[in-house]
Write a structure and sequence with these properties.
The complex is a heterodimer of chains A (117) and B (111).
Chain A lengths: L2 E5 L3 E2 L5 E8 L8 E6 L5 E7 L5 E3 L7 E6 L4 E6 L8 E9 L3 E5 L3 E5 L2
Parallel strand pairs in A: 2-11
Antiparallel strand pairs in A: 1-3, 3-8, 4-5, 4-9, 5-6, 7-8, 9-10, 9-11
Chain B lengths: L2 E4 L2 E3 L6 E7 L4 E2 L4 E2 L1 E6 L6 E5 L3 E2 L7 E6 L2 E6 L8 E7 L6 E2 L3 E4 L1
Parallel strand pairs in B: 2-13
Antiparallel strand pairs in B: 1-3, 3-10, 4-5, 6-7, 6-11, 7-8, 9-10, 11-12, 11-13
Classes of the chains: A mainly beta (117), B mainly beta (111).
């Protein structure tokens, strides 16, 4: 079974840092593109970042320069390092596998990041 | 690419048709393969989104055939032909034409 397990969410103060992890299983992780998508409480979906299987990375403008996506193929894990967090970064963060040319399946269960003083 | 869905919400009677529109700010039709780089997702309360359709009209395995996608270029539609109680959810379109993927704002479907 293809599965993604997100973790690392927490309550963090503005300006702080946090690293999210996503453990993948059930598929050949190293050959897949992986992304993070977030959803503020009660709001819509926002694509955050993509890492391709060649380790090239891409970011939404809202997180460029503050967030870093990375992967460890030996651990079947993708990470999202988040620095200089602001209130607007409060959201559920979902790890997703990109399939085909860029649709998302499956989705992790989500991990909640709350930025609050 | 900005994705705009309409309406923001709609209420449909059980067994009736629900239609959701999605418009992209530029074409997501890739000329080299004549495919539209557009997907649809369903999100039920307290759950992560679930893939319904990709390539604008290809139903994901296991998705009931009452769900269908259509459209090309910049204008797309998700249709639920006969609404069931379990279809109450928020539906999102997503383009994957550009590396920076983007979603529509979502459409809430209620009974």
């Amino acid at each position: 079974e293809v599965q993604l397990v997100d973790s690392g969410g927490a309550l963090i103060q503005p300006g702080g840092s946090l690293r999210l992890s996503c453990a993948a299983s059930g598929f050949t992780f190293s050959t897949n593109y992986m992304s993070w998508v977030r959803q503020a409480p009660g709001k819509g979906l926002e694509w955050v970042s993509l890492i391709k299987n060649d380790d090239s990375t891409f970011y939404a403008d809202s997180v460029m320069g503050r967030f870093t996506i990375s992967r460890d193929n030996s651990k079947n894990t993708v990470y999202l390092q988040m620095n200089s967090l602001t209130f607007e970064d409060t959201a559920f963060y979902y790890c997703v596998r990109e399939v085909g040319n860029g649709w998302f399946d499956p989705w992790g269960q989500g991990t909640l990041v709350t930025v609050s003083s | 690419i900005v994705m705009t869905q309409s309406p923001d919400s709609l209420a449909v009677s059980l067994g009736e048709r629900a239609t959701i529109n999605c418009k992209s700010s530029q074409s997501v039709l890739y000329s080299s393969n004549n495919e539209n780089y557009l997907a649809w997702y369903q999100q039920k309360p307290g759950q992560p989104p679930k893939l319904l359709i990709y390539w604008a009209s290809t139903r994901e395995s296991g998705v009931p055939d009452r769900f269908s996608g259509s459209g090309s270029g910049t204008d797309f539609t998700l249709t639920i032909s006969s609404l069931q109680a379990e279809d109450v959810a928020v539906y999102y379109c997503q383009q994957y034409y550009t590396t920076r993927r983007t979603f529509g704002q979502g459409t809430k479907v209620e009974i």
